Every structure is written in structure tokens, then in C-alpha cells.
TrEMBL record:
Gene for this chain: Pirt
Cell compartment(s), UniProt: Membrane
Superkingdom, taxonomy of origin: Eukaryota
Manganese among keywords: no
Protein's name according to its UniProt entry: PIRT protein
Length: 130
């Protein structure tokens, strides 16, 4: 003979109460991202500000590394310091610059996919909610 499931506090729940529990729907609602389901359009700056900042910082560090590396050619004092730190700034700046430049097409592709998804959702709701 099968016993009905007991809740943590020891009281018995009927199968009807278990089915109508809102735990699953609460988890489903909280798992959805707000930005995907809201239709508020964002400006270009809101979308691209992070990669633009990364590209700007990378370009600045790259230029700083170029200046420090060129100083090792002109200055004789502390030449070893310039020779060691210049290429480090060059590589760090180049890495940030490339990461930011690669990030921009990735964001564009995600925006296109999001637009297609929203269009398909509206089309689906138009046909199936009649």
C-alpha cells in the first residue's frame, strides 16, 4: 500500500496539492533573464560601451608601451627598465585592443539573433493565440 508523501513539517499532502504547487513556476519565472524578455530598446552606447572602453584602454596602453620602448633607444640611463617594461605594455595593450575589437562583432551577432528570436516569438504568439 502506497503512503502519500509527507511534507517537511510532517503533515500529509494530497496529490492534488502537490500538482498545484507553485514552486516550479516560481523557479521558471526567476530563471528567465529580464533583458531577454523585456522589449525596451537600448541605445548604441548601452550596447557597445564595454567593448569601446576596452578598445580605448588597450590603445592607450599600447601607445604607452610604444613610447616606453622608444625611450630605450634614446635614453642611456635606466635602459634595461625601459627594455623590459616597454614590450610588456605593448603586449598588454595589444591584447586588450584585439579583445575589444573581437567583442564588437560578437555583440552584433547576438543582437541579430535576439531580433530574430523576438520576431519568431511574436509570429508564434500571433498564430497560436487565436
Amino acid at each position: 500500500m502506497e503512503m502519500p508523501p509527507k511534507s517537511p513539517d510532517g503533515s500529509e499532502k494530497s496529490p492534488q496539492e502537490l500538482v498545484t504547487s507553485n514552486t516550479g513556476s516560481t523557479l521558471y519565472m526567476s530563471s528567465r533573464s529580464e533583458s531577454v524578455w523585456t522589449s525596451a530598446s537600448r541605445s548604441k552606447w548601452d550596447i557597445y560601451h564595454k567593448p569601446v572602453i576596452v578598445v580605448s584602454v588597450g590603445a592607450a596602453i599600447f601607445l604607452f608601451g610604444t613610447v616606453i620602448t622608444s625611450l630605450s633607444c634614446f635614453l642611456t640611463r635606466n635602459k634595461n627598465v625601459y627594455k623590459m617594461s616597454g614590450p610588456a605594455f605593448l603586449s598588454l595593450g595589444l591584447m586588450l585592443l584585439v579583445c575589444g575589437l573581437v567583442w564588437i562583432p560578437i555583440i552584433r551577432k547576438k543582437q541579430k539573433q535576439r531580433q530574430k528570436s523576438q520576431f519568431l516569438q511574436s509570429l508564434k504568439s500571433f498564430f497560436f493565440n487565436r
